[in-house]
Amino acid sequence: MRETHKSIYTQAIPGINRIDDHVRFTHGEKCLEHFGDGLRPSDKLLADATNAQQRGRHTKHWCETTTKIGEGSIRDTFAARDAKLRQWKEHLNKEVDKLAQEIERVEAHQREVLRRRQYLSDVSRVSEMTAEFRKRRPDREEDDIDRLQFEEMNAALKVDCDLQQCFRDLKECQRQMEVARQALMSEVEAKVFSLNISRRTQHAKPLLSFPYKPEDHPVDQIYHPNTEEDWEKDLSDKVNKSVATRQEASICCLRTAASVKDGLSRVADAWYRTSKALQEAVQRDERTLFNVQNRLQTVGENITSTKQRLASLNDDMRMQDRGKTLQLWRLQTLTYRPGADHIRDAPVRRLEEELGNIEKRGAFVTEGITRNKELLNRLEEEKLQQTLLMEKLTKKLFLERENCLGLRRTVAVEGVGLEDYVTDL
């Protein structure tokens, strides 16, 4: 009977040695025709066995060599994959660290923005309270200080709106960076898991076929059902997206710092312009109050002197009235003397002349009294006006100097270039 050729191996399967037991030859293959029929049957069988043994050795050597090549290729593939995984792991860890540093920087800018907004809130509160204090003034007239305060409050409000938008932008950048960091950290965990699997199975028998093709073994692509090139491209895209996110966050931080610097400068400029106007108004009011006090002192002295003159004139008027009464009595006595009716002699004429002088003097004194009374009335009215003005100025000075400027001293103005302003209120 002829034995059919049987071979139970298909490819070079790693881990299986090729031995002669797995190779069977037919009777025809075992016959050696080139030796001829001159040999004895025993020699033919011996030569046939020798040939079969040699062919078996060649087949075994070929199988072992193929197995070694396959195992080496698989080991090299695993080693290259491990090296690539370690390289990507280090690269991803560096990018994760950079993201963490940028997130900390963004959080620091967020805290700075919140602190600046609190400062602007204090500035706005002080500005509003200053405006409320100024509304209590006796003279509620619109002036440049009200306009400067309005500009100051508008500047603080606008800067606060800008900082609020910067804070929202920083929050969004932080969220995007956290999402990117979480994605990269999951990739790092996947690489670590793959490295652990490779480390634990490096001494086991290889299970992959030769030649190794990633697309033929999707199970080997842990967390990555695609090919090596696909997940490398995906990782590159994630890293590039992370770098773009970090760059956008850095630009947002720079924009926030510029907005804070510019906004604080504008608020400080408006603040010190208002403070300077308040200082000048207080100085003007102090000079006016000093002049009013001096004028009141002068008016008081004038009133005193006028009252003294009126008292002297009244005394003189009483003396003139007494002299006039005496002269009239004398003239009446001389005029109605017995036996001499209506005699106009020298004594009578002298008495009439003295009486006329007394009347002229009395008229002059009366005119002086009238003039001094009018002057005294005017001085009293002026004193009343100056007193009211002094009360108004005193209240206004108290509001602007003690309340307004005193309240504004409680705010530590922040900004750049403050050496150009007079910060001592």
From TrEMBL:
Keywords: Cell projection, Cilium, Coiled coil, Cytoplasm, Cytoskeleton, Flagellum. InterPro entries: Tektin-like (IPR048256), Tektins (IPR000435). Pfam families: Tektin. One of its GO terms (cellular component) is axoneme. One of its GO terms (biological process) is cilium movement involved in cell motility. Residues 89-116 form a coiled coil. It is found in: Cytoplasm, Cytoskeleton, Cilium axoneme; Cytoplasm, Cytoskeleton, Flagellum axoneme. It comes from the Eukaryota. Its main location: cytoplasm. PANTHER family: TEKTIN (PTHR19960), TEKTIN-1 (PTHR19960:SF25). This is Tektin.
